[in-house]
Each structure stands twice: as structure tokens, then as C-alpha cells.
Amino acid sequence: MKITLALLSLAAATSAFAAEIHITGATAFRASAIKTIASSYSPGFLASYSNGTLQTANQVVFQGNFPGISGVTTIRCSWNGAVEGIRAIHNNTPLLFLSEAPTAAGAADGTGGSIKTATSPGTAQLAFSDCAQSSTPYTANTLYPGDPAVGVVVFAYVANNGAAPGITGMTSQLANALYTTGSQPLSMWSGLPADDNKQVYLTGRNDGSGTRTIVLAETGYGVSQLVKQYKPTVVSNNITTLRLWPVADSPNISDIWNPDTSGNGGFFSGGNITSSMRSTSSSVQIQTAAGQNVGLPSAVSLISYQSASDAFQSQRAATATEVPARLLSYNGASALTYKGTGTAADPFSLSDAAVNDIARGRYTLWSYENLYSNVDLSSNADINTLYQAIRAGSTPLNLGLSGIALEQMLVARGSDGGIVAP
């Protein structure tokens, strides 16, 4: 009955005026973006999503009354990565958005809604990005506003469940070594001569990812440089092969900075790394990019990088057969930790200790979460209203696992990977 009344109300309002806004961008900030949008709508809005849940789906649509915007406001989201998002709004590239009107109630905490699958092309006016426009090749056209930061998004290095116990941390030096060759001796972590012939391998994201952009910037490697990464195959929570990332592996191709190149590909979504991080690796066959076996199967360790929200999922056991991954310290700062019971009254979030380390500059694997528009906000009242609502809604509660609010920061940085100081 409530949904029927909501639909009738929406239909009546639509006849007077309707606003429609399209959003794309970072998967690392997806859950927080959904929460900020949902919490900004007036009660009684409707929502739908393409897969998973409202906070994890690739595509989402909201519809209802949005304070400050006349009539019914429809917001369609299609998440494709931070750099990909900037490319999309910079070039007005068509993306696929859910085309059906939602029919199920959404909640202010970013839950609810129902699955819809029909899509149609559209162009986005807004894009969330973990990295600055200047960290991408898409700088010819001005994006707005001049200060696009709406929050701070945090990242972590993660070792898979089967990784050697000697792997407890990462440094910029170790990261650069892995980016360059795709593997390094375990002894570089453990310091033990017995580990000289044991290997640690790297997996990660493609170059449309803001997560990849930030870790390459933070460690001083360079955001446009080629990397060597391995693509895992997981069977029953065991990694069976690690293949140097093959070419033409859609949608995991890296072609933002360089042509599709062996080893340079990576997962298009950070959540896709989670199953590998939860898996053991006691008998893994290494392969070339062409799929040829190299040596015999052996025990190896696997390291990757994820947003704080994806890393949280990696270090949780989702099923009885899965086992949690291990979050790593970074440049001497303690590994991220979390708190909460997962209830509405006590949602999961970064722990007080983690927030303190980030806010005071001890843990520096973070960036500003930016919200860019290809529309001058001063010329479009509806988009400006939505933008300001999202910025105001980027509170500690809504950012949760993804990061922390701007007002919590006691340090700042002038660029991606730049110096962190008060």
C-alpha cells in the first residue's frame, strides 16, 4: 500500500516537473555515495539496482522528492572506476544506466530497493573520483567545481589468506619492486635466507581505477607507468593459477595511459579482488600472459591493494569455507582496523585508532574523494543542489568503511601522493 501511494504521488509530481541526473565514477566510494544520496532524499523515495545490493551494484536508480529540486528527481548511477568516470564526463561518453523506474522503497541508510535489469545509454553530469583530474590524461576540458573534494577515501595493502606469515607490512620500496616485475622474493619481507627462493606476486586493478592511481602516486611510482600484475584463478577458495595479465581481457583492460599490454591489466572492480585475498595458495601454477606454464606448482603469496571498504570485506570470512585475508601495515603505520557490529545502530566503520592515524598524518595511503561535474554548478541549480547535498552528507556515518570526513582531518596534501602535513 505504501509503495502504491508513493508511485501515485510520484506520477502526479512528474506531470508538473521532473529532473534527471546521471552519476558515474569510483567503485571505491560507491557505498558511501549511495548512503549520501539516499540520506539526502525525502522519505518515501524508491530505488532499484542491477545486482548484489543497493550499495554494491554496478548500476542504481533513485526516484522521489529531493529537497531543493522541484517535482520528482531521478538519479541514475553507473559505477565504472574513478579515472573512467573522469573520462566519461570529460568526453561525454555514453554509459549504460538502468532505464526502468524503481518500484521498491529505499531507506535513508542506503538499503532497500529491488533488482531491475533493463538498461539504456546516457551521459553523466557528475563523477566521483578517488584521484584528481590532474592525475588523469583528461585535462583539456575544465571540470567543476574548483575544489571538488567531498571526503577522504582510504586504501590498504592486503595479503591473501595463504600468504606466508612473514608478510605483515608494505613499504613504498617493496611496492615499487612489485609493480616493476610482478613478483619478488619472500625474503624481502621476512629477512630469512630460507625464503630467497619463495615468491610473492602482485595482483590489482586496471588503470581506469582510482585505487590503482592513488597507490602508484603515493608510492612514487608514477600514475601513468606500466605495471606487472597477475590474474588469479580461484577454485573452491584455492588459487590454482597466477597468469601474467593477458591482453584483450575485457573488461579488465588497461588502456587509459598505454595500449593494452601484457601484465598491465587488472580487475575493473576492487570487489573482484576479494575472493583471491580470501583464498589459500599452497599449490599455484604460474603462467605467462599466453597461458604457458612456468615451472611446477608451488606455494606462493599474493599481495594486492584495495579501498578500505573492499579490504574490510577481504578480511572477513563470508562463508564457512572462506578464511579472512590479512591487512598490512604501510610505511611503519599500523594496518587499518575496523569497528562496529553491522547493525543500524552500530554500523561497520574504520576504528578510532585508524581514523586517528589518518587524520594526524601517520597513515598516508589516502586521497581526497572528489565529485566532478562537466556542468558549471553556478549555471545549473538542480545539479548544484545535488552536489551540495552530497558534500554535506559526506559525514563520518555515511563515509563509514570508505574513509573519513573532511572536518576530521588535521593534515592535508596538495596533490595525489603529495606531502602530508598540517
Write the layout of secondary structure elements.
Layout: H1 2-14, E1 18-25, H2 30-40, E2 46-49, E3 59-64, E4 72-79, H3 82-91, E5 95-98, E6 104-105, E7 114-115, E8 119-122, E9 126-129, E10 149-159, E11 169-170, H4 172-181, E12 183-185, H5 187-190, E13 199-202, H6 210-218, E14 230-235, E15 238-244, H7 274-277, E16 284-287, E17 293-298, E18 301-307, H8 308-314, E19 326-327, E20 329-330, E21 338-339, E22 349-350, H9 352-359, E23 366-373, H10 381-393, H11 396-399, E24 403-404
Parallel strand pairs: 1-4, 1-9, 2-7, 11-20, 13-18, 15-16
Antiparallel strand pairs: 2-3, 2-6, 3-4, 5-8, 9-23, 10-18, 10-19, 10-23, 10-24, 12-13, 14-15, 16-17, 21-22
Helix pairs in contact: 2-10
Provide an overview of this structure.
- The structure is a single chain.
- By secondary structure, this protein is of the alpha+beta class.
- The protein has 2 domains: 2-151 and 369-408, no CATH class; 160-336, no CATH class.
- It is built from 11 helices and 24 strands.
- The protein has helices spanning 2-14, 30-40, 82-91, 172-181, 187-190, 210-218, 274-277, 308-314, 352-359, 381-393, 396-399; strands at residues 18-25, 46-49, 59-64, 72-79, 95-98, 104-105, 114-115, 119-122, 126-129, 149-159, 169-170, 183-185, 199-202, 230-235, 238-244, 284-287, 293-298, 301-307, 326-327, 329-330, 338-339, 349-350, 366-373, 403-404.
- Strands 1, 2, 3, 4, 6, 7, 9, 10, 12, 13, 18, 19, 23 and 24 form a 14-stranded mixed β-sheet that branches. Strands 14-15-16-17 form a 4-stranded mixed β-sheet, with no helix packed on it. It has a two-stranded antiparallel ribbon with strand order 5-8.
- It starts with a helix and ends in an 18-residue tail after the last strand.
- Residues 1-16 have low confidence and may be disordered.
